[in-house]
Amino acid sequence: MIKSRAYLLLALQLVIFSSSAQDWLQWFGIRPLDDTVSTEKSGIAVIPLLYYTPDTRLAFGAAGVYYFSFKAKKPEQKDARLSYIQFLADYTQNRQLDIWALWNVFTRNEDYLLKGELRYRNFPDRFYGIGNATPRSNEEFYAYDLKSFKYLMLRRIRGELFMGFDLMVSNEYNFKIKENGLLEVGNIIGNRGGVTSGLGFVMTYDDRDNIVNSYKGHLFEISTYFYDKVIGSNFDYINVNLTYQTYFELKPKNVLAVQFVGRYNTSGVPMLDMATVGGEEILRGYARNRFRDRNFTGFQLEYRFPLFWRLGMVTFAGAGDVFKTTNDLSLQRVKYSVGTGLRFVINPAERLNLRFDVGLGREGAHYYLMVTEAF
């Protein structure tokens, strides 16, 4: 499924809805607190992009979106929710290039939800080995190119419940790895890239009141992917993903958010598709690829509350780890994350925030500057 930057782009799209050309602040959606979303049903917008994570450092680029909505044909029916086609190009201080097009389309009456993406990446990264106890002294650099295609079609079963199928194809190539390093001599599957092709089954239930910044509701999603040489894959394995999120508004605008994430693979999974610890979404305080292994299980809690004017604050805590088998898990090695952050409301009508988080883990602190909440 499309992850964090898809929500980032959706959030940027919502900024456009509340913007005008009167001045620079309004162009970025910073308007009075009683602002409401435009009633426009279609349009095109192009905006600059800037963010920071420990995996990328400072990143800059541009994002564009074409948004539209299918109108109901009968008076008793509702218009479909907003659909969008988006484009992103960014470049980071770590010399990572990412060019990405994606779409999220609700058909008329929301009978179907169609999602997909086309992507190219040139991605220098760091590798520390496989397992949840790899030392930082193992660090070595590698780089690769990626081309990928994903297409997801979901059918509405009832209410907010959708089910359907996903096709995923990616090609990792032009690997540059350290001579006699861990990736070269470690007998690691996928250390030279290859084609990964899989078919998946996806079920999602989402009754959140706002997908950008929820006050109440639930999200449950399960997906299973089958990768096999019969459908063109160089690797044979099965991948299962679980996500559950729930939100409680304890008092006005004071929200307790809870998230559980699981990612599980059978043997044969290539190293680039293994589960990892950290990132800007869960277990903030660790670089995304600091630890990797076949499986990951983790959870986090976050308490969100307003301060004054457009400023708010959060505190969060979580725990989780990667592992090959459950015997690899131990309290001595489990990865914890605690932290706090500030929020600045960009678009009050859509609860859209600019966030700055500080996450503390076993190896120190990491900083994040992003648009939208972590989950």
From TrEMBL:
GO molecular function terms attached to this record: protein transmembrane transporter activity
Residue ranges of domain Bacterial surface antigen (D15) in the record: 196-346
GO biological process assignments: protein secretion by the type V secretion system
The keyword Coiled coil is annotated on this UniProt entry: no
Keywords for the protein's UniProt record, in alphabetical order: Membrane, Signal
Top-level taxon: Bacteria
Localisation per UniProt entry: Membrane
Location (main, coarse): membrane
Transmembrane segments: none
KW 4Fe-4S (keyword) present: no
Signal peptide: 1-21
One GO CC term on file: outer membrane
PANTHER family: OUTER MEMBRANE TRANSPORTER CDIB (PTHR34597:SF3), SLR1661 PROTEIN (PTHR34597)
Provenance organism: Thermaurantimonas aggregans
Protein name, UniProt field: Bacterial surface antigen (D15) domain-containing protein
